[in-house]
């Protein structure tokens, strides 16, 4: 009888193994992410893509404006956004937080900052605070340089503030790369420019630059000290618990992102290539990231990722 029971158990185990224990339901195999074209978010999204692919998922990332990202999360056309900057995106997120259509998973980066910046020679000339911009209006040509349309609301708020006297200034919106190209040109000519600066970003090592004080009203204290968080559409964490575990584990730091963004901007790698390269260089990050995480079909996640990345 014991032998018969053993045979029955073995047969049941074989059947279960062959049919597979999915780490997540079938509907979760495709993971839809988005990022707004900022190199820090392109890089962290690339890390997410690399991990998810190695775990047997089919992730894809779209390049969308901030407003479209949020409306797409609300309409369930997207699943994951790794780039909620607080406080820079508070106004964008507010209606989705209030109606519960977008949920914040966790903070994935601390130590970030986000506010107006100038080249060091402009700072040394006397532009050290938001209030110093107006006296130098002509040198700045009454322009400040932002990034993608839809991502510069705090700059727009600043020029509307009567205390700063910048009502006749223009916010030049283009893209992150377009803004940095303009900074490069102005720095080469030693011309005045004020632009949207932030860390983590290689701009902090490429340019000799300073962050302006006086922007607490718009960006918050300590030069716009910021955190970045992971967000998902409503219900996603419950629907896809294995991806949810990964998202709950996934954290970064400023130095890691600075290095990874350099692979995008200086070496021309794609986001997932930069993500994979960064993981291979620091494989010790995998164990905490993959704690309790399986592959899509229920196998140990850490071993699968290491195998996929040749570690």
UniProtKB/TrEMBL annotation:
Keywords: Signal. One of its GO terms (cellular component) is periplasmic space. InterPro entries: ABC_choline_sub-bd (IPR017783), ABC_Gly_betaine_transp_sub-bd (IPR007210). Residues 29-276 form the ABC-type glycine betaine transport system substrate-binding domain. Residues 1-22 form the signal peptide. One of its GO terms (biological process) is choline transport. GO terms for molecular function: choline binding; transmembrane transporter activity. Pfam families: OpuAC (PF04069). This is Choline ABC transporter substrate-binding protein.
């Amino acid at each position: 009888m014991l032998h018969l029971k053993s045979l029955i158990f073995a047969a049941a185990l074989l059947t279960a193994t062959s049919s597979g224990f999915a780490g997540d339901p079938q509907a979760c195999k495709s993971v839809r992410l988005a990022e707004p074209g900022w190199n820090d978010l392109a890089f962290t999204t690339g890390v997410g893509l690399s991990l998810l692919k190695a775990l047997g998922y089919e992730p894809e990332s779209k390049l969308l404006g901030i407003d479209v990202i949020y409306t797409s999360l609300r309409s369930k056309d997207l699943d994951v956004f790794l780039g909620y900057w607080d406080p820079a995106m508070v106004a964008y997120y507010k209606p989705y937080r209030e109606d519960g259509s977008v949920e914040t998973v966790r903070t994935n980066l601390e130590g970030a900052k986000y506010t107006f910046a100038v080249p060091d020679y402009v700072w040394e000339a006397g532009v050290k605070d938001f209030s110093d911009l107006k006296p130098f209006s002509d040198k700045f040509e009454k322009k400040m340089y932002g990034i993608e349309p839809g991502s510069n609301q705090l700059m727009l708020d600043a020029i509307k503030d009567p205390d700063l006297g910048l009502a006749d200034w223009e916010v030049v919106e283009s893209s992150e790369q377009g803004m940095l190209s303009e900074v490069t040109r102005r720095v080469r000519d030693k011309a005045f420019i004020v632009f949207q600066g932030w860390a983590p970003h290689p701009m902090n090592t490429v340019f000799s630059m300073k962050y302006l004080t006086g922007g607490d009203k718009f960006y918050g204290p300590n030069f716009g000290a910021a955190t970045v968080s992971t967000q998902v559409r409503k219900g996603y964490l419950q629907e896809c618990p294995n991806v949810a575990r990964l998202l709950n584990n996934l954290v970064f730091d400023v130095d890691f992102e600075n290095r990874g963004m350099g692979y995008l901007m200086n070496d021309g790698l794609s986001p997932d290539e930069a993500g994979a390269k960064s993981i291979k260089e620091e494989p010790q990050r995998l164990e905490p990231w993959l704690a309790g995480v399986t592959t899509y079909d229920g196998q140990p996640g850490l071993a699968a990722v290491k195998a996929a990345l040749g570690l």
